[in-house]
Design goal:
- It is a single chain.
- The two termini are 19 Å apart.
- The chain has one domain (2-102).
- The model has no long low-confidence stretch (mean pLDDT 95).
- By secondary structure, the chain is mostly helical.
- Helices cover 82% and strands 0% of the residues.
Length: 104
Amino acid sequence: MKWWILALGIVFEVLGTICMKYAEGFTKLIPSIFVFVFYGISLAALVFVLEKMQVSIAYAIWASAGIVLIAILGIVFFHETISTIKIVSLVLIILGILGLELFD
């Protein structure tokens, strides 16, 4: 169950970050509201997960997975640049997440 809650938190963190892009410096009302709603849900999920997981592991996975997903979504939907170093860096982040969980 802790993994589902953590995954939910990650999804809402990513949604909140996407809304930041659309909020345009908090000049757009609806995306601005969703930034706070989605981040609130995301942080609440993280709080619940911390009852069952070590903070170092849970937060590292939450933050790193969010970084990877946002980078991929940025490339796909916002036409951000892609490079070999960016791909290698994302792979290293993923390997770090796996290393934290698998070798704990």
